[in-house]
# Entry
Amino acid sequence: MTVKSIFLSLIIYKFMKKIFFVFLFISSVFCQEVFCNNPPKYIFIFIGDGMGLNQVFLTEKYIEYLKKEKLIFLDPSWKFGLAKTDCLDSFKITDSGAAGTAIACGNKTNFGMIGMSKLKSFQSIAEYLKKKNFKIGILTSVPLNHATPACFYGHEPTRRNYDNLTDELIASHFDFFAGGGFLIGNADTSKNIFKSSDQVLAKLKENKYNLVLNSAVLNENKKISILPAIIIDTVIWNKQKKIKKAYIDEKNSLPYAIDFPEYENKLAVYTETVINSLKNDTGFFIMVEGGKIDWACHDNDAATAIGEVIAFNDAVKKAYQFYLKNPDNTLIIVTADHETGGLTLGTGYDEHSRSSTNSYAFYPNKLALQKKSLLFSDSATVAKYNYDAQVGWTTNEHSGLPVGIWTIGEGSENFIGIYENSEIMNKILKQIILK
Ligand SMILES: [Zn+2]
# Structure
């Protein structure tokens, strides 16, 4: 080899090396943002209202005792993060309105507000994705104009503007709603719009919603072809008329699983139906709220809360089955809006000896003896079950604890870490916008 040819080879080698690194750089940039990233087009967010970490892990221990199937989102294949839940007010502890707004709209707001701040109205992820031709489904076990579902379609200075929220739900023309019904009235009663649920149903009909008033009529395929559709289980409302304690919201929600086990799978049936009905090539966004975990925890009723976490998990399982068939473009997020009740596992109630191991114990098995919620029982009875299980509560309201975020599927690794609940929406959208 001559000196000239060695020199030439060296130049060619250097040139090729440069080209290689330039190619490597370009491909790594594009891999991250375009080619190698598979943006999720089937997005689920499950919100266990009031479902703090202790509610989740008490349920896990209870399930272990009963040797039932484990909570699906605690499987090690799911990623985990923590979301801080503070609202904008100086007292920090949020309600479902401010927390739901943070999750749905990516903005913190004040206590009790829905989809807006004192300064402006926000766009929710559901509203944004609808414009991108995603199909939208909003499901809950409580009234459809309750705070959490309302944050995905509504914009009100107070969550108690139920009639205005109903009007906003109708105007949203989202593709699928399912839940317990509607609360009636506005905070300023002189501005009420509806006198009864029948008037709400009439307006939904006028606006071409396909009304399904008893989900028991759904066929085996669990699919509704005419959209937009809305499932409101009026048959269940009638059943709940027998409730001893007259909660105004109660008759517009699904019954507690512990009281009516035959309805335990309703949220799961809704979830399966909305998946089958909204599946399309562009994509869907589905929010499912387990709303009565919160209600049971406001009542400091641990056994009832466990039943609601299990019913919520049954709904998550339907999304998980869908994910297994569509792993490359599905994202499932399971989280909570806040913790309710300041639930404690272990109360140290053994007064005989502080050094006794009984002071360092809780007994979830004792909660399996409770057969009815507080609605069909009384405070002393429920308190006794809690006491025997050595499960304690510090409040009848919400606590300021952070909540868990469990994710699986495309982009799930973006949700690892500790962050504000208002970052969840941007973490989802960052992936979609790259599409
Ligand atoms: Zn809540």
User: Anything to note?
Assistant: Residues 20-36 have pLDDT under 50 and may be disordered. The two ends are 52 Å apart (CA to CA). Residues 106 and 426 are 6 Å apart (CA to CA). The chain has one domain: 37-433.
